[in-house]
C-alpha cells in the first residue's frame, strides 16, 4: 500500500503560484558606462535601447511548476507500507507436575470408550489435550515420585513437549511420592521467568512420603513468589499407605497459593477438571504489530534535480552553439567581454 507520511504538506503547492503571481521578477544586475550622449550613440548605430526585463519562457515556467510539485511531493514523504507483521508473546508460564509413582499403574481409570486403563495413561491423554489448547503459552513438565525432576523446561515448542510427555512411565522417579519436592522444582523453573502469571498444576494419586521440603512449607515459598498452585487428587482418599490420597494437604496447598483443589476419579472427571483450569487460566497473549515501511522521497527529489540539471546543461549547450553559428571565426571568450546596451 502506498501512502504519504505527511499528506498535509501538499497544501504548500499553491505557494509556487502565489510567488509567481505576486513577487517581483528577478533582474540580474550588470555593469554599465554612463555617457551623456547615450541616445545619440544609440541612434547612430541603429539600436533601440530598452530597460532590462525578464524574458518569459513557457517551457521554463512549466519546468519550474513541475520541479516545485516534485519537491513538495518529496517533502510529503511517499512510502510503501508492507503488510503488518504480528508477533504473539505469552503472558503466562504454566508448569505441569505429574505423579509417576508406582501407584499410577493402577488400572481403575475409565476412558470415554468405557474401557479401564491405568491412571498414567488416562492422565497423559487428558494432559496432551490440555497442551493442545494452550498453543501460545509457555509450558513445562515436571515428573515426581521418590524424587522430582524437570522433564521439560518452559517452552512454546509443544510438539517436543508432547514427545517428552509420551516418554514418561511409572517408576522412572521412584515408587514413593514427594509432593513438596515437586513444588520446589517448579519454583526453581518459574523463578526466573519474566511473564506476568505463573501457574503450577500438580496432579498426584498419593500422599507425601518423604519430601526434603514439606508440602506446606513449599506452598508458602510458592505463595511468596506469586506462583498459583492448582492441585488435582486422583485415587481413593479412604485407601491405606501409598494408595491413600491426602486431599487435606492438597487443599491446603491450593488455599495457600490462591489456587483451587480438584478431585478426579476417572478420565471423564479429569477431563472436566482440565476444562475448568482452562477457563480459570484463560488463554491470553500480547500482540506486537509492526508494519515495515520503505521510503521513496528520493524518487521525486532525484527527478527534480535531474530535470534542473538537464535544463541548465541544454541551455549552456544552446548558448555555445548559438555563438559559434553567429561567428564561426570568433573567439568563444570574446562574447563575454561585450557590453549590453541599456538606457540609464
UniProtKB/TrEMBL annotation:
Nucleotidyltransferase in keyword set: no
Keyword tags: Membrane, Transmembrane, Transmembrane helix
Biased composition (Basic and acidic residues): 334-344
Region (Disordered): 322-344
Domain VWFA: from-to ranges: 93-280
Protein name in the entry: VWA domain-containing protein
Lineage: Bacteria, Pseudomonadati, Pseudomonadota, Betaproteobacteria, Burkholderiales
InterPro entries associated with the record: UPF0353/GerABKA_families (IPR050768), vWA_BatA_type (IPR033881), VWF_A (IPR002035), vWFA_dom_sf (IPR036465)
PROSITE patterns: VWFA
Transmembrane region(s): 296-317
Domain of life the protein comes from: Bacteria
